[in-house]
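Quick illustration, no need to memorize.
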Amino acid sequence: MMEEILQAFQKHSTSTISDALDRLGIPGQALGIRPLKETFRLVGRAFTAHYVPVGAEKGTVGDYIDDVEPGQVVVLDNDGRLDATVWGDILTTVAYKRGIAGTVINGVCRDYNRSVELDYPIFACAHTMRTGKDRVQISAFNIPVSLGPARVAPGDILVGDADGIVVVPRQAEAEVLRVANEIAEAEDRIREAVEQGMRLDEARVKYRYFQLQRKADQ
């Protein structure tokens, strides 16, 4: 069963969570990483891996997959490389079968069609055909990694939707959720006020729209 806090984050868009991160001064927006399909959505805790260029002894690309727990999100940091994939159709098939929540890549994947066919969420910089076998290898598992400007530690919460990926640090997740709830409530009130005939500029002032994502001391 999904954790209660993950269920709570599932109710929010990445835009709302992004604003909450901004208010708290947390750089959790994984810029440049997009869903392969706009309807993909994921929520889960991070299982991380970092890739480096392959050495003299050729490495493996995906033998870790059986160690990922159902409901976790696979986070692969390939340093943003666009010339070597680190995820493909076999990994998608196994991850889907194991109930893994999705895959997020600071780099590229391949076999787009299998992801769409199984409705398995993949978020990446792009997709292409060129294999990472004998080009990259994993240097470490479950260490802090990067998704563009966002840092991801093992166990951090990732939320993904059509607008991209946000990372919520484990130590701040309760506070981020509290602020996200406040922002979502205020925006709902603005929409309701406008629907009832209030001018948008008045509704924004009344519900402090321009302060929603600002730090408390600003």
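The chain has two domains: 27-168, 175-211.
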